[in-house]
Design brief:
Length: about 425
């Protein structure tokens, strides 16, 4: 470009230098990456052993967090299945002048009738008689819980029928010998669920007609499986099986979750009157909110998840320390190489970047392999051990980010040590 008869060289030369500088920097950065990756490939076994600590750490994080998260989700599902407006009443101990009596007070069917009749904030009262009984079908014999209850048991506990139908209030009044089987009971008898409807089972030697089979509920604890039980009408259980009117519990459904507190007060009023408890004396029964109990269990499970995750993160730190040690050894072995590169014009930042990239690549590769191993371990535990597991995307992202952070953090010291080497001393190194 001409200006006042002179060539405007500065504008042209500055632009050329800018473009040339950018290209040189891009080429230099690419060369640094190539050198770092070639150093990793040159020592495949050592690189693999270096990554092993990160692989184990990331896999442990993924697996442990998947276990904890799966347990939390199972508890949340159970809370939703129970509903948020259920209370359970259990028998307690009688007290006299603050001292517990040796005799345990029982809930009876009369208590359930009184709640149905006199309580004001309840939409359903579900008494339950529960005993383990021998049940026979053909030449098979099992021992499961037999529950005497009312038809509302299904709605309150959110059960559905897989086959057949539920018994009615009229069946209870008539003391009919009819039974509804839990989902797992036909499997225990090695028979098809639909085929067993209309057949006869023997409960404590008494014949009962099977009129229905419940859908699968699923178990979240080792001490109780809701699919391994048999439902019969309350009056049938009282007069034909158990021979008494003692209840294990009374489940009540409150009109609205916001009315839980007043409903508990109302239940307490009715039962204290039924049991003849004088003012000032302690209750001989207990009222529990099952959702609160499960929420407490969820908090415990969450704490357990954090504990497992913390232990796994420690293994990641151990893997990071291993990478730092190996990188320090690598710096010592490649001292002459570093001296040659510096003599040829490599700057401190070039050397620093090279070793940081090596540490970062090792950690990221270990992290990716660890994610695959950890996810596979979680799936294997779910399939083989029937544990509740859930691999959350958040845990995967955290594991990758943390593995990259470990690579940078534990790679800084070896990389800085390499960049500070004097080129003359490095060339003399044997």
């Amino acid at each position: 470009m001409w200006r006042n008869g002179l060539v405007d060289y500065p504008a042209y030369s500055a632009g050329s230098r800018l473009v040339s500088g950018n290209r040189e920097r891009d080429m230099l950065f690419g060369e640094v990456i190539k050198v770092a990756l070639s150093a990793i490939r040159a020592n495949k076994l050592r690189s693999l052993l270096t990554m092993l600590g990160i692989v184990i750490g990331v896999a442990a994080v993924i697996t442990m967090v998947a276990l904890g998260t799966g347990a939390q989700r199972a508890v949340q599902d159970q809370i939703e299945a129970l509903g948020t407006n259920l209370l359970s009443v259990y028998a307690g101990q009688s007290f006299h002048r603050g001292v517990a009596s040796a005799d345990r007070v029982s809930l009876t069917t009369e208590d359930a009738l009184a709640l149905s009749r006199d309580a004001h904030y309840l939409t359903a009262v579900i008494p339950e008689m529960r005993r383990g009984q021998q049940v026979e079908y053909g030449n098979k014999n099992i021992n499961v819980n037999v529950i005497g209850t009312v038809p509302e048991y299904l709605q309150a506990n959110k059960y559905r029928l897989a086959a057949g139908e539920m018994f009615t209030a009229g069946d209870g009044i008539s003391r009919k010998r009819v039974a509804v089987l839990g989902y797992a009971v036909p499997d225990m008898f090695e028979v098809n669920r639909a085929a067993i409807v209309g057949q006869m089972v023997m409960i404590r030697g008494i014949p009962f007609d099977v009129i229905g089979v419940l859908e699968e509920k699923g178990s979240t604890s080792s001490w109780f499986n809701p699919d391994e039980q048999i439902l019969v009408p309350l009056q049938t259980a009282e007069y034909r099986i158990f021979g008494n009117d003692r209840l294990n519990s009374i489940t009540v459904q409150v009109v609205h979750p916001d009315s839980m507190t007043v409903a508990m007060i109302d239940i307490e009023r009715v039962l204290r009157r039924e049991h003849g408890i004088a003012p000032g004396r302690d209750n001989d029964f207990q009222i529990r909110d099952r959702a609160v109990f499960l929420e407490t269990f969820e908090e415990t499970t969450q704490t357990f998840t954090f504990l497992l995750g913390g232990i796994a993160f420690v293994s990641l730190l151990v893997g990071g320390i291993g990478i730092m040690n190996i990188m320090l050894v690598s710096v010592s072995e490649r001292t002459r190489e570093i001296g040659v590169r510096k003599a040829l014009g490599a700057t401190r930042s070039n050397i620093l970047l090279q070793f940081l990239i090596e540490a970062l690549v090792l950690c990221l590769m270990g992290g990716l392999v660890g994610i695959v191993v950890g996810s596979g371990g979680a799936v294997a535990l779910s399939k083989l051990a029937n544990w509740n597991t859930f691999v959350s995307p958040e845990a995967v992202v955290i594991a990758v980010v943390f593995s990259a952070a470990v690579g940078i953090f534990f790679g800084i010291w070896p990389a800085r040590r390499a960049s500070l080497l004097d080129p003359i001393e490095a060339l003399r190194y044997e």
